[in-house]
Structure formats: structure tokens, C-alpha cells
Write a structure and sequence with these properties.
Elements (H helix, E strand, L loop, with lengths): L3 H4 L4 H22 L5 H12 L5 H29 L2 H18 L5 H18 L1 H11 L4 H26 L5 H8 L1 H13 L23 H5 L2 H21 L2 H7 L4 H29 L1 H25 L2 H30 L4 H30 L3 H19 L5 H9 L1
């Protein structure tokens, strides 16, 4: 039980932000980022144990399984969180993630990997962006963009840290042992959730009266009837197809380009550090400079990064690879933060769990297709050139959807004050 005199302090929202940041580190770093450094080892292990060659497309289908598994839990989790809160959801997610990591350390065939990633899916929902967007949106009416940007940066730092860390740990132990010992991290995180996490602010300076404490915004059925929600969904599908396609294949792409395991693992670090910078910088600029203007600027960076990566497959220049990864991550980071911010700013927090759940449910279509199609196109052509060209086209399509959003910054700011 958290003493009220702590929660009554307006600064306690930064404690909430810290817990959300750590949860995002775990949710993304331990699923999307860290385990990718084992890909070439797992491919060899599975081929040796089964006697049959396992393609990259088959291996990368695991991320598709995970993302589409997450989709099945998104809307219902959002509805549950609107009614009962996020704390019990987070605790269940951390226990499940620990169990999946333990099982992952003992897999012997591709179907077992698919089952593990099927379990990772709800972990992304129970511990990841959905529950944390709800938390930060409740605690941060002022500086919400900054709060969401810092929260979202946890996913980038988690992948940026765990990917090279796992690669370094391979010098001392095998991949199965690394997964086994890291299964303890989510259990340790439960302590922070139990003792530090509080659902809602209760300080009078944050909620001035019982009337003010009533959730403001659209009802779910009202939001579904707006064009903004569907343009936001289509935009999200495009950006997640692109980011997931690059993120889950970057390590293998650099290995193909002649880099060793330790150097190739830096691809994820650079990609996610770029994303980190995008998420935090967007948090500073979005509310001050205008949400739509900033959104289109970060889309331009996203497109530039995709073009550089496509050119790198033809000209084989390291400059194109490293700058492409960094700029691609920078663009995505800004767009990702604005997606979370616009979910709350355009529709309010009255039904934010359901609305965010619907967005997560639909954007997983793109996120699920990105990894496997990028791998399949490589299997068919022997190069990532066609895969990255498609990713560039999808990002441009996302820009078109983003340009159709109707965003009134003055109206949004006034609604926060009323």
C-alpha cells in the first residue's frame, strides 16, 4: 500500500513515469530486441536438430505469431483496464513473460518457438504500450507529450541495451543460459509494480474536484464514427509494418553485409537509439510547435531512412547502412510518440482503453506482416533490396494517411484546461 502523502505530492507522477519506462524496457527489449541476436545460432541449432533447413521467413514468422496473438488481447484488455485498472493486468503480464522466457530456454524445434511467441503476445499488451499510455495519460494532463515520449523511449532503450548485452553474454554462456537467467527480470519488476504503482492521481492540484475527476472525452462508439480514428489506424498499420520489418531483420541484414555478431548487434542499438531520440524530442516539440506539423516532419525522416537502407542494398556502403538505421529509427520514434499522444488528445481518456485497444488490434495487421514478408522476400530474391523498397513505399502511404488527420491544437489544449 502506497502512503497517501506520497501520492498527494504532484511530483509522484514522475515515479509513475519511471515505472512505466521500466515496463516498456522489459516489454519490448525482451521480445523484439534482445532475442534477435540469437537468430543465426537458432537457425543452425534447429537445422541440426531437425535435419531440415529452416528459412528466415519461417523463423521470422514467430514475430507475426506474437503480434497477432497480441491483437487478440488488445481490445478486451483495454475494456478491462477502463473498468478495473491496469495494475492486475501488468502483474499477470510479468509473470507470463517470465514463464515464456523459461520455456524459450528449452526449445528444440520451430513449433515450440511459435508457442513461446504466442505467449509473448499478451505480454506486449499486459506490460507494454496499451497499459502505459493509459497510466501516463491519467497522470500527465500537462506535459502529456513529454511524459508519453519518455515512457515510449523505454522500449527503445530496452532493445538498445539488451541486444548488445545478449551478444556480449554469448562470450561467457550459451544462448539457452542467457534466456534462463533473464527470466528472473520480470519477476523482479513485480516488486516495483506492487509497491510503487498507483492507478490515478488523487492530489487536489491534479484533480481539482470530484467533477473534474470524471473522465473526459469521446465514448467508444462516438470515436469509431470519426474519420480521425480510422486515419490514425491506417497510419499505424503502415508505420508498424515498416518498423517491424526492419527491426526484426536488421541483425541478419548486417551479418549478410559482412559484419560480425557483436558489430551486427549494434544495428539494433543504433536503430533504437535513433528511436529514443525521436520519442523524447517529439515530446518536447509536439505541443509547442503543433502536432500535425511535427508528425509530418518525422514522417519525412522515416522516409529518408528507408530510402538510405534501400540504397545500401545496391551500393554496399556502410554510411548508407548506419545513417539509414539511425534516421529510420529517429523518424519512427517521433511518429510512435505522436500516435500515442493523438490517441489521448483527439479522443480523451473516457474510453481510452477501448480506443487504444482497437488501434492496437488493427495496427498489428501491419506489424505482423512486416517481419515475415521482409524475410520471405529475402528468401525469394536473396537480397533485402526488394523488401526495403516495399517498406519505403508503405512509409509513403502512411504519410498520406497522416496528412488526412484533422488536428486542432488550440481545441486540444483548451479541453485539458476545462
Amino acid at each position: 500500500m502506497i502512503p497517501n502523502h506520497f501520492i498527494n505530492n504532484p511530483s509522484y507522477r514522475w515515479v509513475i513515469l519511471t515505472v512505466s519506462f521500466l515496463l516498456m524496457m522489459i516489454a519490448n527489449g525482451m521480445t523484439f530486441g534482445g532475442p534477435t541476436v540469437f537468430d543465426d545460432i537458432i537457425l543452425n541449432t534447429l537445422t541440426t536438430s531437425s535435419g531440415e533447413s529452416i528459412t528466415r521467413g519461417e523463423l521470422k514468422f514467430r514475430e507475426t505469431v506474437m503480434i497477432w496473438s497480441a491483437a487478440g488481447f488488445g481490445f478486451l484488455t483495454g475494456a478491462f483496464a477502463d473498468r478495473y485498472g491496469v495494475k492486475p493486468i501488468i502483474i499477470i503480464g510479468l509473470i507470463l513473460m517470465s514463464l515464456m522466457y523459461y520455456l524459450y530456454s528449452d526449445v528444440n524445434n520451430i513449433n515450440q518457438i511459435y508457442m513461446v511467441y504466442l505467449g509473448f503476445g499478451p505480454c506486449l499488451i499486459f506490460v507494454g504500450s496499451l497499459v502505459n499510455v493509459l497510466l501516463i495519460s491519467k497522470w500527465f494532463s500537462k506535459n502529456r507529450a513529454l511524459g508519453l515520449g519518455i515512457m515510449a523511449s523505454g522500449s527503445s532503450i530496452g532493445s538498445a541495451v539488451l541486444t548488445p548485452l545478449y551478444a556480449w553474454m554469448l562470450n561467457f554462456m550459451e544462448w539457452r543460459s542467457i534466456l534462463f537467467w533473464n527470466s528472473l527480470i520480470p519477476l523482479f519488476m513485480i516488486l516495483f509494480v506492487v509497491f510503487l504503482l498507483h492507478e490515478n492521481p488523487i492530489n487536489s492540484s491534479i484533480n481539482q474536484s470530484n467533477k473534474d475527476n470524471q473522465p473526459q472525452g469521446f465514448r467508444f462508439i462516438e470515436a469509431v464514427k470519426t474519420r480521425n480514428l480510422w486515419f490514425l489506424i491506417l497510419m499505424a498499420m503502415c508505420i508498424f509494418y515498416s518498423m517491424m520489418g526492419v527491426t526484426t531483420n536488421a541483425f541478419l541484414f548486417l551479418k549478410d553485409s559482412g559484419f560480425n555478431t557483436q558489430v551486427a548487434s549494434i544495428s539494433a542499438t543504433l536503430l533504437f537509439l535513433g528511436s529514443l531520440l525521436g520519442k523524447i524530442s517529439c515530446g518536447f516539440f509536439a505541443e509547442a510547435q503543433g502536432r500535425k506539423k511535427v508528425l509530418l516532419i518525422y514522417f519525412s525522416l522515416f522516409i529518408l531512412g528507408a530510402i538510405l537502407l534501400t540504397l545500401s542494398t545496391e551500393y554496399k556502403k556502410s554510411l548508407f547502412i548506419w545513417s539509414g538505421l539511425g534516421i529510420f529509427g529517429l523518424g519512427f520514434g517521433g511518429i510512435y510518440t505522436l500516435k500515442q499522444l493523438l490517441s489521448a488528445d483527439l479522443f480523451g481518456i473516457k474510453s481510452l482503453g477501448k480506443i487504444t485497444g482497437l488501434i492496437n488490434l488493427t495496427d498489428t495487421i501491419g506489424a505482423g506482416l512486416g517481419p515475415v514478408l521482409t524475410g520471405v522476400f529475402f528468401d525469394q530474391t536473396g537480397s533485402y533490396q526488394y523488401s526495403f523498397l516495399i517498406i519505403t513505399s508503405v512509409v509513403i502511404l502512411g504519410l498520406l494517411f497522416a496528412s488526412c488527420l484533422s488536428i486542432d491544437d488550440k481545441k486540444i489544449e483548451n479541453s485539458k484546461r476545462n
